[in-house]
Amino acid sequence: MRPTILLLLAASLLAAATARAETPANPREQATRAAVAFVDAFNNLDWERFEAAWADDATLYMPMPGFPDRLAGREDIMAAFKSLFGDFPEQREGPPYLSINPIDLRVDVVGTAAIVTFLLGDESPRQRRTLVFVEQEGIWRIAHLHASRAPLEH
């Protein structure tokens, strides 16, 4: 083989290996990356990435007053978050504007779904989050987010 062909072959193999290394090898790692990316988008109030993280038919339970019922569909969920994304940049320096720091992150994959659970802070009431991701055309999107608060027992 000519040296040029060998160089091209080596470059092609290196490029293929690098592409595989950048792509998570398993669904659990993919879902974990999707969860971390979602939290990063939320902390930075990056509307485009935040909105893209949700499935069209997603549902949400929010832990805030004024939201006692389930929100259903991306449109209703985005409407609920739109004012939050507009208010925080005016109130805080950033990015990041928020400080969502998952504690005890756990990812369980069941078929083409992943259940991601974590806690926020250690004060009472304890903040709990559950995100259900589904794989849609190779992209992990949020199908459901449940946010709740529970008093700490001392």
Helix and strand topology:
Layout: H1 3-22, H2 27-43, H3 47-52, E1 54-61, E2 71-72, H4 74-91, E3 102-110, E4 113-120, E5 126-136, E6 139-150
Parallel strand pairs: 1-6
Antiparallel strand pairs: 1-2, 3-4, 4-5, 5-6
Brief characterization of the structure:
By secondary structure, this protein is an alpha+beta fold.
Q: Spans of 5+ residues with little confidence (pLDDT < 50)? A: 3-21
- Amount of helix: 25-40%
Strand order of the largest sheet: 2-1-6-5-4-3
Counting DSSP H or I runs of 4 or more residues, the number of helices is 4
Taken as a percent bin, the fraction of beta residues is 25-35%
Major beta sheet summary = 6 strands, mixed
Number of beta-strand segments: 6
- Please state the oligomeric state of the protein chains shown: single chain
Structural class: alpha+beta
The average pLDDT is 84
Distance linking N and C termini:
73 Å
* Overall outline: globular
Report Rg.
20 Å
Helix/strand order, N-terminal first: HHHEEHEEEE
